[in-house]
Amino acid sequence: MKAWEGVGEAYAASYASLCAGSHDEILRRLGTAHGRRVLDAGSGTGALAARLMDAGWSVTGCEPEATMRVVAARNHPQVSMVEGALPALPFEDAAFDAVTANFVLNHVSDPRAAAQEIARVAAPDAVMIATIWIVSPSWFWQRVCDRAGLVVSPTGRLAPEKDFERSSAGFGGMLSEGGWPAVDVAEFSWTWRPTTDELWRSAEGGVASAGAFYRSLETAERERFARAFDRLCEECSDDGRVALDHTAAVAGSRRG
């Protein structure tokens, strides 16, 4: 989680609204709450946890990054948020009737171990749901770098024995290897329409790989990056917003 250190406020002002694009699909797959216990693992700033609570779930959010928890406490004080990170959650076996992990397993150091840990804390007959990116915002930032003449060196890649193919089939196979039974994976797409200010806040604030790359640049390179960003936004924006198409894979499984 080092890449997300200190980015809570910037994430809340930018990518949080992007990641919310999966919330309706997650709620649909979970079914009726009836006050059952759900863990939102990698809860970030607590937006999904709050949606789950509004839907009638008894919610626990779990998030390792302190600045994310600060934002969650301010914006969603009704949500119980604890410190913890996959693949070592601070909960007993079979503690929850459902577990969600929204755009989390694409960031952990050992995805299969994380999947196993989710299964461990899920009760018999519990629903487990996770999402990853198939098409993420990285394509937009690559175009910015190309225009700025900046070469992005691959960083943060997992060792081959830990990684998995970032496709629906690859995601489902990894979860099966992590102990999830009868995994059902589907893709869904939506268009995120952030303002140009929200997009820039993510880069300047160090959010995700693009933000980490921007922060690694020298002053002159940052200026080139910013100019390329402005030019691309001028071409792509409509009334100050940029329409960005994204695709995610959502996987569901039921224990028992």
Automatic annotation (TrEMBL):
Top-level taxon of the source organism: Bacteria
Database matches in Gene3D superfamilies: Vaccinia Virus protein VP39
Cross-referenced InterPro entries: Methyltransf_11, SAM-dependent_MTases_sf
One Pfam family here: Methyltransf_11
Ranges for domain Methyltransferase type: 39-129
Name of the protein in question: Methyltransferase type 11 domain-containing protein
The organism of origin for this protein: Microbacterium murale
